[in-house]
Amino acid sequence: MITDPVLMAYYERGGERTRLREGRGRLEYGRTRDVLRRTLPPAPARVLDVGGGTGVHAGWPAEEGYEVEVIDPVPLHVAEAGELPGVTARLGDARDLPVPDGEADAVLLLGPLYHLPERDDRLREARRAAKPGGVIAAAFISRYAALHDTVHLGIYPQGAWRFAVHTSLETGLLITGEGAGSGFRAYLHDPDDIPGEFADAGLPEPRRYGLEGAFWLYGDVNDWQDDEGRRKLLLDAARRVESVPSLLGVSGHLLAVARL
User: Fold this and answer.
1) Are strands 67-72 and 87-91 parallel, antiparallel or unpaired?
2) What is each CA distance from 258 to 2, 26, 40, 184, 233, in whole angstroms?
3) Burial of 229 by CB count in 10 Å (0-12 exposed, 13-18 middle, 19+ buried)?
4) What is the largest CA-CA distance in the chain?
5) What is the helix (H) or strand (E) element at residue 140, kind and residue range?
6) Which residues contact 243 (CB under 8 A, 6 or more apart)?
7) Binned average pLDDT, 10 residues per bin, the chain of 260 residues
8) Which burial class, exposed, middle or buried, applies to 71 when counting CB atoms under 10 A from its CB (0-12, 13-18, 19+)?
9) C-alpha–C-alpha distance, residues 117 and 108, integer Å
């Protein structure tokens, strides 16, 4: 379970209700759905959405005929996800999933890896929970996301933010503190480390997808998403470069998908 009180307080405020529904987060949401629709086994497969929050990525698979269960350590998230049609939800920890071995056709880790700094904690349980032939899809924050984002937001000149960002580039740990924001902690991945992490967990080499490409940093990205026609073109553009190795680190988030 989450033991960091700052982190728990952040999620209990309900920010996950809107993070992927507003602003630039819509691009991450749309691209995640795009990749999953191409890589999940066909419905009615059983999908375990680990760290699924309020169910933002659980609702649409349930609508499309999947059997979806959200497991999350935040009581507020579990309550809200469980209200979605066709979705069940319960409390649980990505490091000790309350499910039998080989239960799921697909295991989604679309958020918990951000908060697990210990390598052995991140993929081991998902591997255990997935059945032979199953799919594991894990989301990662790029090691370079904080640098790009703080420049984009104009806060990079602030000394406390620069220190946090520079530390994250060296160690992967982004820790904001007094004067730098919320006290939020996250683990950021170098894209080149992801295949080795899958191998260490006994998983096949994954295909890596850069979700937002460089487009999340464009000043008019929200204008593109506000217009239905331009939004479809933006998603198409991101798809065309989603697995170009030299561009993976520019993306704010990456999705790695492996089939057992």
Assistant:
1) parallel
2) 27, 24, 10, 29, 27
3) exposed
4) 51
5) strand 130-141
6) 207, 208, 209, 210
7) 65 73 93 98 97 95 98 94 96 95 97 91 96 97 97 95 95 75 79 97 97 97 96 97 98 98
8) buried
9) 18
